[in-house]
Amino acid sequence: MRQAEIFFKGEKAGLITQQDDGSFAYKYDDLWMLDNSKPPISLTLPKDKKEYKSDYLFPFFYNMLPEGANKQAVCKHMRIDNDDYFSLLLITARYDTIGAVTVKKI
Questions:
Q1: How far, in Å, CA of 73 to CA of 54, rounded?
Q2: Beta partners for 18?
Q3: Rounded Cα gap, residues 21 and 65, in angstroms
Q4: Contact yes or no for 52/41 (Cβ under 8 A)
Q5: Residue 60 φ then ψ, to 5°
Q6: Residue 12, Cβ density class (10 Å: 0-12 exposed, 13-18 middle, ≥19 buried)
């Protein structure tokens, strides 16, 4: 099992988990849920107390990943498998992303 904290504009919004079987789960942080002024991180992951589950990396997070030659360069340089999307997410979404969401390995 691997986990990472999800931050929205620098504030902890939730936790993403990759289970040992390769499936994924996302759960909003309790404090994030209590604050009605805090938005969902994505329209596809509305604020809810339930834990979201998926057999694959959620499309919102998958769309944060580099593609093509950029993906190949990162995978080669960091020595990760091209199909290890969770590791790729952890490496590429730590600091500077296009949107407000960043990912920090636990």
A1: 28
A2: 2, 24
A3: 21
A4: no
A5: -55, -45
A6: middle
106 residues of the chain, pLDDT tens digit each = 999 999 999 999 999 999 999 999 999 999 999 999 999 999 999 999 999 999 999 999 999 999 999 999 999 999 999 999 999 999 999 887 888 999 999 9
- DSSP one-letter code for 93: S
In terms of DSSP bridges, do strands 2-8 and 11-18 run parallel, antiparallel, or are they unpaired? antiparallel
Q: Which residue has the tokens 């499309």?
A: 59
Output DSSP code: residue 21.
T
Question: Are 59 and 74 contacting, i.e. CB atoms less than 8 angstroms apart?
Answer: no
Helix axes 68-78, 85-92, angle to 10 degrees: 90
Q: What is the DSSP letter of 11?
A: E
